[in-house]
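I have a small job for you when you get a moment. Would you make up a two-line entry for one protein for me to read? No commentary is needed, just the two lines. Write everything out right here, beneath this request.
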Amino acid sequence: MNRVKLNLLLFPLICLLLHSCTTTGVFEKNVPIPGHQWESGFQPTIDFDLTDTTSTYKVYIVLRHTNKYGYNNLWVKSKVKEPGSQEWKSQQYDLLLASNDKGWLGSGMDDIFEHRILIQPETKFSKPGKYEYSIQQIMREDPLPFVLNIGLRIEKVE
């Protein structure tokens, strides 16, 4: 095999490896909503291990729904439990999904839309270990139809 062919084979591999290195510091997990009907009693818990307590993080809620979802927003209660603790700390969020003049604010493909909504722009995690996040829908309509997935995304601020 000559040098040119070897370089042509190695270059894409090296680019792929370098690109994959830039995604360190990102965690994302999504949980499917059973029957696409989110009942308030279904409160998925997402856990992740964190070792770097010196960095700052951005925390997002990730939501996927169909075009038939009937509201411009979604009220959720998010709870977090730190490593070694039994106490949950909770916060309510009004997630804006659409506006009357622009329509859906998330990215869409066919009739499915995804939103990554920043809920904590500068978060410091104080303890290393396993964190648990729980997300509950607190809308008046229960179950809430046309919701496909709910999730959590955590990005290290570079």
In short: The radius of gyration is 19 Å. The longest helix spans residues 3-21. Residues 3-23 have pLDDT under 50 and may be disordered. The CA atoms of residues 75 and 125 lie 24 Å apart.
